[in-house]
Amino acid sequence: MKTLENKKALVTGGTSGIGKATAKDFIEKGAQVIITGRHQDSLMAVVEELGSNAKGIVSDAGHMEDIMELQAKTREIWNNIDVLFVNAGFGKYAPIEFVDEELFSDVFNVLVKGTLFTVQQILPLMGEGGSIVLNTSIVTEVGFQNSTVYSAAKAAVQSLVKTIAADIAPRKIRINAVSPGPISTNYFDRSNLTPEDAEKLAGTVLPEIPLGRFAQPSEVAKVVSFLASRDASFMHGAEISVDGGYPKVKVQ
After folding, report:
1. 162-201: buried (b, 16+ CB within 10 Å) or exposed (e) per residue?
2. 2 assigned to some structural domain
3. Four-residue CA torsion sign, 151, 252, 214, 218
4. In the predicted model, is pLDDT for residue 188 greater than 60?
5. Which tens digit of pLDDT belongs to each residue from 6-18?
6. Of 118, 139, 143, 152, which is most buried by a Cβ count within 10 Å?
7. Half-sphere exposure (CA, 13 Å, Cβ side) for 224?
8. Model confidence over 158-177: pLDDT tens digits?
9. Catalytic (active site) residue 150
10. For residue 250, is it within any domain?
């Protein structure tokens, strides 16, 4: 079903994982999509893969200069945006005694500052009926070791869903969030975890997932597409978990 027919969408962090899967699903549902990515080569490769309904903008969600140029760069392609998926993100992990200002700033610059100012810069391109989706996380519900900064940043994003919702309601623009659980992506490639650490973490989490597996990015993408569409027209300031039941459901 073409639930996003003729819509123009912007997906940040769209070169891999959930962002790429969402851009693909948006296109399949009838939208035209701009994706952002940090590197020209990988960005253009994904744009080519997605086809004629995809465009690309080189932009780093952790750099304010790039974020403040995003509106102008988007206007060079289209004058309006109907759907914004703020997805760009990564994590760094350390025990509390080893957290330093650099780690804190790196994570908060992308996840919190990047999210807030991306929404601010794209809002002037959005009109009545527009939809914004933020990417939160189940880490706001669970206390993971070594995740103090990442979890705090995602909690801030979760709060932004509600506060931005209050600000933009008079403009009839909706904002909601998808909260992914364990997903099979290359997410840890940008983190400071070694492959061995990432594998150990995955091995710890997997037995706790009632459905017995990690999700595919496409399974999260379909929820984002729902929130972006008119099918979710009375959802505002809400958050949908895509987590296979983890950590809420316990199977004996």
Report:
1. eebbeebeeeebbbbbbbbbbbebebbebbebeeeeeeeb
2. no
3. negative
4. no
5. 999 999 999 999 9
6. 118
7. 30
8. 999 999 999 999 999 999 99
9. yes
10. no
pLDDT for 187: 55
DSSP line for 29-83 = TT-EEEEEES-HHHHHHHHHHH-TTEEEEE--TT-HHHHHHHHHHHHTT-S--SE
| pLDDT tier at 244, thresholds 50, 70, 90 | very high
Q: Residue 237 — left, alpha, or beta (φ > 0 → left; ψ -120 to 50 → alpha)?
A: left
The candidate with the shortest Cα–Cα distance to 15, out of 39, 92, 28, 27, is 39
Catalytic residue among 93, 150, 187, 246: 150
C-alpha to C-alpha distance for 38 and 15, rounded to whole angstroms: 9
Model confidence pLDDT, tens digit, residues 216-230: 999 999 999 999 999
- Supply the pTM of this predicted model: 0.93
Kindly state whether residue 249 falls inside one of the protein's structural domains.
no
- Domain count along the chain: 1
Cross-strand bridge partners of residue 177: 134, 239
CATH at residue 200 = 3.40.50.720
What residue numbers bound the domain in which 38 lies? Answer: 8-241
Give the CA radius of gyration of the chain: 17
Residue 198 has pLDDT above 80, yes or no: no
CA distance 239 to 223: 11
